[in-house]
Amino acid sequence: xxxxxxxxxVALLLVWAFVAGCSSGDDPTGLSAExxxxxxxxxxxxxxAATSVHVTGTWITQRVEYQIDIRVKTDGAVGTIxxxxxxxxxxxxxxxxxxxxxxxxxxxxxxxxDPDAGAAAQVLRDKFVKVPPDDPSFARLSGFTxxxxxxxxxxxxxxxxxxDGRKNVRGSETLVLVANSGRGGEVYVSLGQQPFPMRYxxxxxxxxxxxxEYNADFPVEVPTGDRVIDYGSLNGNPTQAPxxxxxxxxxxxxxxxxxxxxxxxxxxPTAKPTGKSTGTPR
Length: 282
Hints:
Number of strands: 12
Shape: elongated
Radius of gyration: 23 Å
Strand order of the largest sheet: 7-8-9-10-11-1-2-3-4-5-6-12
Distance between the termini: 77 Å
Number of helices: 5
Mean pLDDT: 76
Strand content: 25-35%
């Protein structure tokens, strides 16, 4: 009789230990047991209450991959967007947005030799270019430097949302939520004390962004002296943003560019949000 009872008893104890360990240690708030709508609402609320976040990863659009590393807070941002052949540095201090890039950024992407672009590149390379706040091209780029609009975009899921197990993201246990079996996007929600979104993918072959270091402050400073050029003071009131392709499909980012309407950069991200950025670029 004892032998007959021993195996079921051992199995029951193992199951109890597993469940207890998962519910208390990995999910102290019990969030994973709630409906998906409730989990998304709580994660969205946590993101809205955040004062800063570090976003890194890749974004793929029109078969072009962009590497993103940017730290964003309510009153500023600093980071980079990289693509083949060029790097765009972004700096926002309060309402003011600055971009900086090397000479390659201001060259035409189609391989043309453009004297105006070459001259502009010589002037603007390695300078922080203060861009007009009302320029529609830079409004897209500015989207990566605004905390809550950026976080809001990470809840764009299409289709029925279901739970899809757990995943460790940068040392944090998360619950994976997938829409339309992953084709409509994925959000990884932290099972810690705050249900922050920790990872987001808009769909297959579209890239993935990690979000971490929530509520960690970092410095941003307005560049001074000959390190900065106010694009609004060049050529009066230009009709096209420096270094942007007027006909390009830009993602929330666009790109920086030259002080003439003919100079366009070699990179122009066309979607939402890897290098290291720890403070204001020097």
